[in-house]
Amino acid sequence: MGDNDRDTHQIDEAVADLLQKKGTLEMVVEIGEHGSQRHTDLREELLLSSSTIQQRLKDGKKQGLWEQLLEERGDIAAKVYRLTPLGNVIYDIAVDLELNQLYRSKRGIIRAIDNRERRVIVDSSPSDVEWLSEIKMEEHNLHSVQKFLQQFVDK
C-alpha cells in the first residue's frame, strides 16, 4: 500500500484512543495476518479474555477498523471479522515495523513463562494435595506429569 493510500485513511482521535487500549492493535495484526478471524480464533491465539476481545471487536467495528460478515467455513456460516481499508493501512504500518513478529514472540515468551511457573508449583508441591489436579499440565515435562499423576495412584 502506497503513501497516498495511507493519506486517504488517516486515523482520528477516537481510533487513536482505541488503538491504545489493550489488545486492539494486536487484534488488527492478527486479523490482517489471516484475512479474517472469528472471535473463537482470536481467543485461542491472543492472551486476552473473551470479554476484552468481544468489547474490542465491537469498538473496532464501530470505529471502522474491521467489518463483520458471514463466511462459509465447511458446512456452516461463521461470523468473522475482516479489516476495512483503514484497518489495512494500520496493519501495513504494523507489519513494516515488524509488530506481527514481535507479537508472536511475545505470546510465545508469555506462554513459556506461564508453563514454567506451573512447573515450579507442581514440582515443589506434595503429590497428595487435591488442588494440584487443577493446575493445567499442557506443556510440562514427563517428570512433572508423573508427579501430578502420582496423587491419584497413592489414594
TrEMBL record:
This is Uncharacterized protein. The lineage of its organism: Archaea, Methanobacteriati, Methanobacteriota, Stenosarchaea group, Halobacteria.
